[in-house]
Amino acid sequence: LLVISSIALSATACNSVKDEEIIDAADGFASAIASCKYKKISKLTSDINEDYDAIMALSDDDDSDNQIAIISAIIDTIAYEVDEDSVEISKNSYSCDITFTMADYESIFADDDLMTDLDTCLDAIADADSNEITVTAEFEKDEDNFIVTNFDDFEAVYEFYNIDDIEIYGNGTPVSPSGSNASEENSENSNSSDGAKPAATQPEAQDG
């Protein structure tokens, strides 16, 4: 009887995690992803690469003024929804689906009329239709916390960090605050690939 009771108590402990706990963990992680803040994200996942610290910083040393403005505008459009009905709980793992929405920035870059100047581009991003990206967050419990173990799957949200000047300029005429033709400047920039920003979706793997 004592053995049976011990087994029953052990099983109860393994299944004591409630859906609400996973929903809260998913909401917290989704909020961190939407914030695009490395420190927030790194506290909630075990495998984000340190390269993202520099990538998310949007430094003047690595990014042009246009890149910073346009990427920041895209970040402002990010929203998310946690699918509460998708929660799955097993003995040692937990999961929940999260859907992110953001501006369809690629359609903006493909429209020359929206790339004539920076203000027009930024306004178009703010008013753009949205794209959806759904990711299943997988968690493991670390004492009282739930840690996301599959950050790599969330890198799809951050493809906009790969945007470089050539992609932003589209047809070869850079957007500029004045709306003037800056083709000479673009010609100089396009002839050099030095200092190109590393792809956010392909950071180097780290040991451990």
Description:
- The protein has 208 residues and is of the alpha+beta class.
- It has nine helices and four strands, in the order H-H-H-H-H-E-E-H-H-E-E-H-H.
- It starts with a helix and ends in an 18-residue tail after the last helix.
Portion of residues within helices: 25-40%
Q: Could you tell me the number of beta strands? A: 4
Rg from C-alpha positions? 22 Å
Principal-axes geometry comes out as elongated
Q: What string gives the helices and strands in order?
A: HHHHHEEHHEEHH
Mean pLDDT: 80
What portion of the residues fall into strands of 2 or more residues?
15-25%
Low-confidence sequence ranges: 2-13, 176-199, 201-208
In this structure, how is the largest beta sheet organized? Answer: 4 strands, antiparallel
Going across the major beta sheet, what is the strand order?
1-2-3-4
Look at the helices and sheets and give the structural class: alpha+beta
Question: Termini separation (Å)?
Answer: 44 Å
Number of H/I helices: 9
